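hi!! sorry for the late reply, been swamped w classes. u asked for the two structures so here they r. pasted raw, havent cleaned anything up. first the sequence of the first protein and right below it the tokens
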Amino acid sequence: MRKLKLGPIVGHTDDASTRVWIQVDDNPANYSLRVDEVGLFPFEATEGDAIEFGTALARVDGLQADHKYDYRIVRRGRFVPGARGSFRTFPPQASMTNLLFCAVSCNGAETHGAWEQFSEYVKQAQPSFVLMMGDQVYLDEDPPNVYKEHLDSDSSTRRKVMAEMYQANWSREPLKSTFANVPIYMLWDDHDIRDGFGSLAQDSPTLAERYPRGRPLYDKMNAYFEDARDVFWHFQGCRNPGPQDSTDPSLPNYVGGPISPGVRKAMPYVFRCGRLVVLMIDSRGERDAFRKDLPILGTRQWAFINEVFANLPDDVEALAVVTPTPIASQDPDGQSQKLLGTRTDDVDSFRKGDEQATFHPKATGTDDAAEIAKTIVSARISSQFNVQPNWGTFQRNNLDEARDQWSHRVARREQATLIHHAVAARKSITQPSLERGLIFVSGDIHIGCIFNLKVGRSRGITSLTSSGISQIDSTQPLVGVFIDEDFSVAPGIRSVLREVTNKYNFGVVQAQPTGRGAVVSAALEYDGSSTVFGIDTQGIL
């Protein structure tokens, strides 16, 4: 009797429908989804007729709102061993139900991290859904390192190994049982591709046009990227809501299939659960840190975001804005951005067509005082004279970490615009007394933290970063390096650190409708107590 290669995984759900995903090693047309009390629904391949991965979806309609259903996977009339689960449909949109959802990110495969505790929490608390905000797999770190070992491989070999990485990671318990029993919404980040993708010279279509010697390096990286994106779609993105799922103008989802080769296109989406709208923003799909206009999110995605904000129905009382990287966790004038934020080492090597220096930059650590001193002097020259000589090699291989942050100079305009537009969306045009609850949710930085944002006279806003569920950074110091405590994000926007942990963690968010705007609260869950400390080197920078 055949077993599934991977799955089942519950995907996008609403008050009347759901979808379930599987991966099989034969024809997906042999499989069906039997939902108790409802009936039998066929699986359809996500790939059409050309089967490569064996991924498939079954779509179920005609369900009752806020109702739990059990299901099993059937192959040619026989139940598939172990392929079963359950889901609960969302409450009606007009419901005043208290909504609970969870947020996780950074799912490394070498340890379970907090997965056992998280799985038990999901069973007990029964959240409406789980957000996975990026780095569902580490294609560039977990063994086998696909980026390191297969950057130069042929596409079919590379894609096969990428798919096997998903299978190995997601087949582990308790991930498998969690995915099968609660709606899962996934958004990719850099490690689903390669660390810092979109923030380095070899990823940039802009620089490829500008520097012909670097074009072959871009072409090599882009081929790898397009393979990772295609695998992402069939293993993650296909379960998300698409344009066919709603005619509601506040849910203008525009990505309904895999992106064509040669095209850079962001893959955001939005969905509604009761009186809550969740906006999932893609900061990798169209990212080009060297593009003059909208380098992080791109023109089409910004039009999508503005359309969501402009069309929120009056009965929506809460808005969750999800960005893979934290919206406001690092001081734009802090020591991390001062030290690395203006360096262009990768641009110099890309311009020369130097493949070794571009893909494998050498760097020194804290044991090389001379290189640290040169790097600091280089940062001071950049700050005082607006010229970056790129002296020193200290942390040179972490340029992408600085550019990845919303606090980086190329991202700050979009950062401030996103925050201001989200705050403006709190107000209903036709109901002036309504002020929607607002929360920003994120992952990426391998640290869990909660910030309070103050924007003008608006009610305080929470920014929750849950990172990571099984990938954490225990490096100390954290405060002043990875995150900052109290700083100005932009004129009229201030961010203050409320909580931080370097333990494996997951996030829990509750939205309680009141009729005049939901009360939104957030918490970080982790074992024991967490002690972190900071360092202040502003005086030498």
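now the second protein. again sequence first, tokens right under
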Amino acid sequence: MFRQLVIPVVAVLVAVAGIGGVLINTDRTHSVVADKQALTDATPSIQHHTHTDLQKTGRRLDEINQVIASRVPQLSGLRPVNANNDSQAPWHDPALNHLFQQIRDQKLTLWFPRNGEPFSIWVGNPEKIVDGKKTYQHAEALQKAVPLINQLPFPVRVWFYGTRDQSNPELGECIEAVEGIKKLTGVKFSYCRINERGYQALRKLSRLQNLEILHSHLDETALEQIAQIDGLRRLHLHFGKKKINYSVAEKVLDLPYLEDLKLCIALPSKDVTPFWMKLAGCSQLVSLEVDCGTVKQDVLVKFLKTGDHQKLNKWVIRSIFPRKKLADAFVLAPQLTSLKIPSGSTDEMLYLLEKLASDLPGMRDLTFGWDTGTHLTGEEARQALSLLGSFTNLEHCQVPITLPDAYALQPITQLKQLESFYCKNLNLNQETLLQLAKMPALKSLDVYALNFGDESAHLLPWLSHVEQIEIRDPTTLTDARLALLTKLPQLSRLKWCDIAIQKPVPLSLEAREKYPNLEFEICGN
């Protein structure tokens, strides 16, 4: 009687949760459907099942009920997991395909939004052979494409990408061609050579709001020109190790509309504190990442206390981990939802988590160091995971934790917007899969090993939005487990590194070819 009542309820709840299609509409979930059909057979057929079969079926049903019970209470108020799906974005309009191809015919590339980058016209190194010699034609290619680019019904950014040895030509003339783009919002340079003519051309771009210059030619003369582009709202500059005079560097902080500043610059040690004190007066900043030399805790505390940081939403601190005074001062940036810092001692990390959970519970993105530093273990790890569970809006989490056991994940199963998190020794097995299945927004997983088999087949489809899995020990990726992983409805990429593996990963070529929709990203190849 209990089974007859539960199964219809489960079916209804699955439909409400929007994942019924996951369980019954794909070839990759046939085994789950088979389990359900076996359960709904007429009562007399039960006598043919062994006691062990009934125990397994009962356990599977109990686990599925746990997953549903975890998800259902939040369904009515939960924002759709794919709310940011850009399938309706203007650049996906089929009517633009012919125009896109015309732009490509000019030896330019289209960069569709991904990895946080906007729609861009990618100017690599267009070239042609003249009298047997290779010649670049950056300016010619862009000049011909400008009339086509102006037909696009949305804003564009131009992205110049040179060569790592910077053997590509100076871009002065080419940058002048950018001025003809009517809907220009940004320009980005990577590994480029920019002469004085180029910086003067940038200064004349009246509509320029977004400028990034990374791993490219930069000096004080260039910075003088950049500091006069009054319309800039987003400025990312990487100067490397060349010393820059403070009197020039501080001019950047006078830009009237600057909201997003990322600045890697080498200042004399005596000028680091004055620079941060002037930076404290930039009350319009929303996103901040400044690395201008070694900075002390007290300087950053004073930065928070002397300035108005009501708008500051994202802060990357490169050089120091916040200790007690600085951890206490973060409350002075009440809109802070993203914080990226180096790793610290276990006591420091726990104290900071406690303060953030108390003062800034709206955090969406937390990153403490990387996976090579000190990790929280045992009871400290449990406490950290419990504290993370209090950030109800958390989407991404990188806190160095060694997972004590699968049940320690329970606090973060309540985070219905969590898309990714890190635990050093997270293995995919029966116990962890049961916890992960309760996280409806998960999009990517970083795991050490795969330790599951057919006994977990009913749980895998509940990882309904996982698109990518990175595996630290790829020897655990077998043909059989690959077949089971394809039950994840949105899985599109498996990542691993096989440089240190003496024997090939036990994943046959036949198994890979069987699933052409899966991308295998292998760093050792």
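hope this helps!! also noticed smth abt the second:
The chain has 18 helices and 21 strands.
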